[in-house]
Structures are given as C-alpha cells and as structure tokens.
Write a structure and sequence with these properties.
This protein has 16 helices and 29 strands. The chain has about 575 residues and is α+β, with helices and mostly antiparallel strands. The protein has three domains: about 120 residues, no CATH class; about 70 residues, no CATH class; about 325 residues, Ribonuclease Z/Hydroxyacylglutathione hydrolase-like (Metallo-beta-lactamase, Chain A). The strands form seven sheets. It has an eight-stranded mixed β-sheet with strand order 18-16-15-14-13-12-28-29, with helices on one face. A seven-stranded mixed β-sheet has the order 19-20-21-22-23-26-27. A hairpin with a 5-residue loop joins strand 5 and strand 6. Bound molecules: fe (ii) ion.
C-alpha cells in the first residue's frame, strides 16, 4: 500500500468553530445514523515522548529511565558475550559469566551519578551481589494526550488535530459515539451537552472527519440485530487472534479486542468495532499490545463497563489500566481481582489467575476468565502457562478449584506458543537482575503435555488453539503471528517447537477434541454438553457487515470492482 499522504489541517488553520457549529449538523439528515467508516481510525498523541513502559506502575518513571539507560549501555558488551558463544570462543554454560555481568553493570552504574542516584548495586564483602531500586506503589508512567491523528486508509490521508480545551477523555467519549448507532440529532445533543470549551474541539474534530471523508451516513443501524440473528445463545465467536465474542442471551461480552481497521495492515476488509454489536462488557486479560489495543478501545462506546486485572493482585509492579482507560474516555472501569466475579443473569464471569509469559519474573497482575453461564463453562486461558519456576494454574490447583465450584469446563481457549528468550532481549529486562540477563526465560512456553494436562483437569470437551493470528488482516511482521502468507518465516520461528497439531493425539484419551481456530469460527454448545464448530459463512464477513447499512463502499462504487 502507498504511504499515507500527510495532509496537515491544524487547529490554527481550521475554519472558525462558531461558523461550523451552525452549519455542520445540516450536512446530514437529522434522523440518519452517522459513524466512522471502518477504513478510518483515530490515534491519540501525547505532548511528551512516551517512556519505555507507558502506564507501567509501582515505580517512579525516572527510576525506570535509569534502569533502562543502564541496560542500554550494557547491551553491546552483552551482544559481544553472546557472539563469543556462537563463535565457540566461550562455553554455553560459563559459571563465571554471571559474576562478570554483575561487576560490569556495577562499574557502569558507579561511574554515572544519575544512575547511582536510582540504582544501588555492587559486590558485598561476602561476595554476593546487591542490586536494588526503590519502589513506589502510587507512581505510574501515566500519559496525557493532547492531540490526535485521523487516518483514512481509502484516500491514504492523515490529519492532525490538537485539542484546545477538551481533554482526551472527552474526545474519546465522542469518538465512541461514532460507531454508527447514533443519529445526527443524538450526536448534536451530545456535543452541545459536552461543556462550553469542549464543544469547539468536538466540532473541529467533526469538521476534519467530514473534510477527510471519514464519515458515513446510513438510514438504519442494523448491525446488532444482524449479529443476534446470525448467532445463538452461548455461542463463542472468534474475531481473530485473542479476540472473542460471547453471546449471553440477548447480549455479548467481548474479550481482548485487538481489531484492525480495513487496510490498516493488509489489503483486506477486516472486523472492526463498528461492525460488531455493542458489547455489554469488555474484558482485558493482560498488558500485551495484542490484548490491550488503544486504537481498538478508542473506537468503542465509553460507557461500556470494561474489566481489567486488579492492583489488589500486585506483588510490586503493575500495569495501570485505570489510568489508560480513563484517558481514553471509559467511565466504568472495573478492576476484577482473582476470584471476584462479574455477575449477569444466569451466571458470572470469574477472574482467574494468569501465570507465566513473564521471562523476567516481573509478576504483574493478569487475568484469565471463566465464563460460567447456566451450567456451561468456557475458559479464556489466553497465553497463561508455567512460570520460570514451574508454577501454573495446574500446580496451584486453580483449574481443579474451578471445576469443583462450577463443574466441567466444556471449551478451553488457549495459546500454543512455545517461546523462550534470553532475558536481555525481553521487554522488561532492565527491571530484572543484570546477572540473569544471559539466562533463558519462558515467554509463554506452552508444551503439548502442559496443555493436555490443562484440558484434562478442566474436563474439557474441546481445546481451541487461538491467539496466534487466525485472520488475514493482522500485521505479519510480529513474531507470534502465524498465517498462511508466511509459511517459511513460521517454519524458522517454530523450528524447535513441538508440532501444535500433535496435541490432538494427547487430548484424545480424555475425549477432548482439538481445533485451530480462524476468525469467524463459531463454537456452539451441543445438547450433550460438548462443543461443535460451525462457520459463520458469509453472513459475518466484514464487507457483508458493512453492506448491511451502507451498500457498497464508495471506493468500490468508484472503481467498479468488487472484493
Ligand atoms: Fe501475551
């Protein structure tokens, strides 16, 4: 795809607000539904460059900056040590390597007063190594957004907009209303009620969106009705990667939405927020970009309850979900600690401890979720697995306890990744002891035997392998994204993994089936308590969902071609 043409329309050269306010609402029919096209999206921008770990909590960001700096300064020496091993000049298991790393780190820190101010390290009299940095439970690396960028993938244009008086939260709330379910009259009322200073910013945003052809109008809003007609009670619909939609009677619960606007990464129409029914609640499992995606969350209505891991489960460090979600505009943020439930009529969603995918043993609070709905249970296990020390939901009796309390778990959704990495290359390396940087840590190491034991303990009838892509619209440069487009790269990455499909044989003795899922597979209960997989067929294909209310997209009409 061609690069975006950066057409600049700034606050300064945008037309005057008062003039716009009186006119812009007359651009559309009062009772028509107005929303962002699915090939457009918004990204917030901050005044300052984000630090290494935005919204990371439990430590002063200045301390993190020093730790990051020390790690960065050590990196070339570490790379040389790794090269020596590959060149057969140094042994793989060198008993002195740890000591040399620690001493080099201490020498570096002691030589720089600004690092010494935050990091206490050095060799003690008894030969042990001291390495400490101060914690501060109340501090997190919050960010304040002061502007946004709008993208139109069909015209390949982008526009910047700086907020004058509005907060990011007010902009986020308004963007959430542009999901195609509100009429022009309703949107005008929302803008007028937003407060004197904010009206001008929202109006400028709307005018920019109109100028850059980001807004579609429709005479009806039928997405939700269509989804209700295309799915059944207690269906789970895979939306790609780790995103799942659970149908609970007449409502839907959404898990880990990482959705793509059309043509954002790949030249295919994709499942985007405005093509989904409005969820009754959104559940986030853990602090990885492919599970907490601000771009997707920005497109969603902000009065939806959003459930995240709780700071109550922290040991030292945590991800500050409330700060991020409030900055995006969410007004109903719920931190759900392990064992706590989100109730609904007929059942609840239970917060379940998440282990592993933690190469540096940072131990941030993370959640899996059990959906317990009228006697039928579904486990959203995501990337959880054994920690470096071997602790897991199995060793801690978590799965046994769930089965005792709620009964057998019909369907288990889990990743099959088998990643191990040198800690020095892990995201949070600088927060871990330098002497361990050339040790290997798990980064989601889910062997077939672990997953078979998980399914057995859950008394599962179907194991669903997910969260490694499963749709053609995800970027393929990410290491965990396997698709039919990149078989050779996948072969390189997974050369030493157990074959994922070999899990099938390990599951068979306990009567559990295996399915690698692709987007728009539907997991449906069978009368005997099992799970069958049905395809949504064309009814839920992204282009067909768009056509429901809008007909063909304008760029198809122009070019006369069809997907
Ligand atoms: Fe993850």
């Amino acid at each position: 795809m061609r690069p975006y043409v950066n057409s600049v329309l700034t606050a300064e050269n945008a037309p005057s607000n008062l003039h716009l306010m009186s006119n812009i609402w007359n651009s559309w029919g009062r009772d028509h539904y107005l929303g962002l096209y699915p090939w457009t999206w918004i990204q917030f921008e901050s005044a300052d460059l984000p630090g290494p770990y935005p919204f990371f909590g439990g430590v002063d960001p200045e301390v993190v900056a020093s730790l990051q700096k020390a790690h960065h300064l050590m990196q070339s020496a570490i790379d040389t040590a790794i090269s020596d091993v590959f060149a057969h000049r140094g042994p793989l298991d060198d008993p002195d390597r740890r000591r040399r790393l620690e001493d080099a780190y201490a020498e570096l820190v002691q030589s720089r007063p600004h690092l010494r101010a935050h990091i206490r390290c050095g060799r003690r009299q008894d030969g042990t190594f001291q390495w400490e940095y101060p914690l501060d439970p109340g501090k997190s690396a919050t960010m304040t957004y002061i502007g946004l960028r709008g993208f139109n993938a069909a015209t390949q244009q982008v526009f910047p907009l700086r907020f004058n008086s509005a907060t990011a939260a007010a902009m986020g709330k308004f963007l959430g209303l542009l999901d195609g379910t509100h009429t022009v009259t309703e949107l005008q009322t929302a803008v007028e009620k937003s407060g004197p200073g904010i009206v001008g910013d929202l109006t400028r945003l709307l005018e920019n969106l109109k100028s850059y052809d980001c807004l579609g109008v429709a005479q009806r809003s039928s997405i939700c009705t269509h989804w209700l007609g295309s799915t059944q009670d207690r269906d789970v619909i895979h939306l790609g990667h780790a995103a799942l939609l659970y149908r609970q009677q007449g409502q839907f619960f959404l898990f880990d939405p990482w959705l793509m606007p059309w043509f954002a990464e790949m030249p295919v129409p994709s499942l985007w927020g405005s093509l989904l029914p409005r969820p009754a609640a959104i559940f986030l499992t853990h602090d990885h970009d492919d599970h907490v995606d601000p771009r997707t969350l920005l497109s969603m209505a902000k009065d939806i309850p959003i459930i995240a891991p709780s700071r109550k489960n922290r040991r030292k460090l945590y991800y500050d979900y409330p700060a991020l979600l409030r900055e995006l505009g969410f007004t109903r943020v719920i931190e759900l600690a392990h064992g706590e439930t989100f109730p609904f009529e007929g059942g609840s969603i239970v917060s379940v401890p998440f282990f592993g995918e933690d190469p540096c043993d940072i131990e941030m609070p993370r959640n899996c979720y059990l959906i317990a709905d009228r006697g039928r249970n579904t486990l959203v296990h995501v990337d959880s697995g054994p920690t470096n020390a071997g602790r897991s939901a199995l060793t801690e009796g978590v799965i046994d306890d769930l089965v005792k309390q709620y009964g057998p778990i019909a369907t288990v959704f889990a990743s099959q990744q088998q990643l191990q990495e040198l800690r020095t290359y892990a995201v949070h390396a600088c927060l871990s002891p330098p002497g361990q940087w050339l040790e290997v840590g798990e980064d989601g190491f889910l062997t077939n035997s672990y997953l078979a034991q998980l399914a057995s303990a859950a008394k599962a009838r179907l194991f669903v392998s997910y969260a490694t892509g499963g749709a053609d619209w995800y970027p393929d440069h990410l290491s965990f994204m396997f698709s039919r487009r990149n078989p050779a790269r996948t072969a390189l990455l997974t050369a030493h993994w157990e074959r994922p499909e070999a899990l099938k044989e390990k599951l068979a003795p306990t009567g559990c089936g295996y399915h690698y899922t692709r987007a728009l597979d539907i997991f449906r209960p069978t009368p005997d308590g099992g799970t069958t997989v049905v395809s949504a067929g064309e009814t839920l294909f992204p282009l067909n969902l768009y056509r429901l209310d809008h007909g063909d997209p304008p760029f198809l009409k122009r070019k006369g071609d069809r997907f």
